[in-house]
Amino acid sequence: MALNSVNTNVGAMAALQTLNGTNTELQTVQSRINTGKKVATAKDNGAIWAIAKNQAATSNSLNAVRDSLQRGQSTIDVGLAAGDTVVDLLNKMKEKALAAADTSITSASRATLAADFDSLRDQITKAVSNAKFGGANIVADQTASDAVSQMSFLANDSGDAFTVIARDMSLTGLGLTASSTFDSASAAATMIDSVTTALATATNKLASLGTNSAGLDAHLNFINKLQDSLDAGVGNLVDADLAKESARLTALQTKQQLGVQALSIANSSTSTVLGLFR
Q1: How far apart are CA 259 and CA 275, in angstroms?
Q2: Are 120 and 93 contacting, i.e. CB atoms less than 8 angstroms apart?
Q3: Cβ count near 23 (within 10 Å)
Q4: What is this structure's pTM?
Q5: Contact (CB, 8 A) for 9 and 269
Q6: What is the pLDDT of residue 278?
Q7: CA torsion 146→152→154→156, rounded to 10°?
Q8: What does the alpha-carbon distance between residue 170 and residue 257 come to, in Å, rounded to a whole number?
């Protein structure tokens, strides 16, 4: 038989405990909706929170890796642009030397061709010396102040390097000099061979630089995908399913209202004891 007591209302105590539990769940759901996360602090789930923080730190550190690789891309792209210009100029120089090697032209015509040849030669120096990005020139004469023998860029969050070897595409690097020219048909014929060799050297160096650029592009693409995967993984661990939480919020609000009514009924039950004293 249930105890009829005005001091201890067991029904009200049970109803209050249920209502408090509902309020606690409701606060949790509201917090998830407000923050968008099911694990916002270490208190929510210590293990998951720690894993998510570590993965987020790795993802954030990849920003520096991406920036370094993009800087490398820009540096090499500038070098490639200069290299393309050098190859075009060498082709034109070969054309001028070939025309000057023709013994049927006059000395005046040959002198004009030599002047054009010299102008093209000097443009190579200008193109190479201007191929700088961030103060570094990956195709410059190795004696130049802005020349680099190699450049190392971040490859991962551990600090490992992606190294690119510089390719000297200056006149010296191509086997020519600032005084390379001709003044006779025989000298022009000799210059054809020199320019042909320089052209082969330039294309080989440009191809090597292009391979390095493609490698940087591929690695940067991988870093971008890796960062996206890490971010998605962190989201899977800590993000709340708002559709699910919205449904829970509605259910808990209804449950809270019912809990308040149940507590009200339990509290009023002791008033029946008054009937025993009438």
Answers
A1: 27
A2: yes
A3: 14
A4: 0.74
A5: yes
A6: 62
A7: 170
A8: 83
Q: Please choose, from the candidates 113, 88, 92, the residue with its C-alpha nearest in 3D space to the C-alpha of residue 181.
A: 113
Structure tokens at 125: 């120096």
**CA geometry: angle 201, 206, 207, nearest 5 deg:** 100
Length of the chain in terms of residues written? 278
Q: Give the residue, 259 or 201, on which the prediction is more confident.
A: 201
Structure tokens, 24:
């606690």
What is the amino acid identity at position 18?
Answer: T
pLDDT for 21 beyond 60: yes
Listed in sequence order, the residues at least 6 apart from 75 whose beta carbon sits closer than 8 Å to its beta carbon are 133, 134, 136, 138, 151
pLDDT at residue 1, rounded to an integer: 44
Check whether 273 has a pLDDT greater than 70.
no
3-class SS string, the chain = CCCCCCCCCHHHHHHHHHHHHHHHHHHHHHHHHHHCECCCCCCCCHHHHHHHHHHHHHHHHHHHHHHHHHHHHHHHHHHHHHHHHHHHHHHHHHHHHHHHCCCCCCHHHHHHHHHHHHHHHHHHHHHHHCCCECCEECCCCCCCCCECCEEEEECCCCCCEEEEECCCCCCCCCCCCCCCCCCCHHHHHHHHHHHHHHHHHHHHHHHHHHHHHHHHHHHHHHHHHHHHHHHHHHHHHHECCHHHHHHHHHHHHHHHHHHHHHHHHHHHHHHHHHHHHC
Query: Which phi and psi angles does 37 have, rounded to 5°?
Result: -125, 140
Largest CA distance in the chain: 143
Residue type, 74: S
What class, spelled out in words, does domain 63-237 have in CATH?
mainly alpha
